[in-house]
Specification:
Blueprint (H helix, E strand, L loop, with lengths): L23 E4 L2 E3 L23 H37 L22 H8 L3 E8 L2 E9 L5 E4 L1 H4 L4 E5 L5 E10 L4 E6 L9 E2 L10 E6 L7 E17 L20 E3 L2 E3 L7 E9 L11 E3 L4 E9 L16 E5 H12 L5
Length: 352
Amino acid sequence: MTDHQQPQQPYHPPRPPYEPARPFTAGPGTTVWPSGSGGGHTPPPAGPAHAAPGPAPARRARRGAGLMAAVALAAAAVGGGTATLLQQLTADAPATTASAPVAGTNVSAGSAGTVAGVAAAVSPSIVEISASSTAGRSTGSGVIITGDGEIVTNNHVVSGASEITVRTSDGRKYAAETVGTDPGKDLALLKLRGASGLKAAVLGDSSQVRVGDQVVAIGSPEGLTGTVTSGIVSALDRDVTVAKDEGGSGQGQQQWDPRQGWPFEFGGQRFNGDTGSSKTTYKALQTDASLNPGNSGGALIDMNGRIIGINSAMYSPSSSGASTAGSVGLGFAIPVDTLKADLDALRSGGSN
């Protein structure tokens, strides 16, 4: 008896979930492979194309996804390596700056350009000066320029003084003596007794100052030590005339009210009293930073914390029932370049 076998059914592989991409010919010798969103296929390597078995499309899709993941990982590794290399190169390379650092008081990078930053950096270099004479007692300001106690101020702050006391921003008091004066420039140099380790200010360059530059003024108006005001440079090279000797009359008697301000002339007009017959004229920086009696001898400062002027004259109009009506934004400062050119002469006694 012969066994009968059932005929084998032909095997039909399952239909792929998407239509496999098929190349099409755009022209002689040119084959274009589609890259639709369904399969994510990549062009096959060069060479004769081979037909893939039934399940090949699914395997190709999985292989494409794996290849994309591998490429992403490789790119991340390269990126990380590049960043690491860049960090190493940056760490090894010397830092460069736009300008060389200067010794003395500097404004920190984080606070440069702010009034608060300038005030914090420079206030320790500004002092209050009390001068006693036979005519009474007056108050002004000064700037520390050396750590052992050299102080720059206006000549009219200490002119005729028999005793000078200086108080620093931290409250310490020192006796001071006058080293040299220059009434023609309204400058004076003092030296503190027994001082050391003081914070000296940085003297800037007033030739680089421009109208509109922001400035900060620090001084002791009306005896209010360490008062900070701010404004701009209003004008350059103003001709300001002040008295050369005490009282302006040359007769040894004080004719000006220290609460009103030192007499000066500007534009053919007199302010704060009579300048007398003995007077001098200098080129000044004009500022609208609020200055009041007692600011004389203090600092006008740029936004990098450098001294650009020594405050010397301010207009305070009188009002009924009071000695002053306050600042009206009309103040003047001796350019720091004038001071720097005069320092050697002041240290050797100056001119009288």
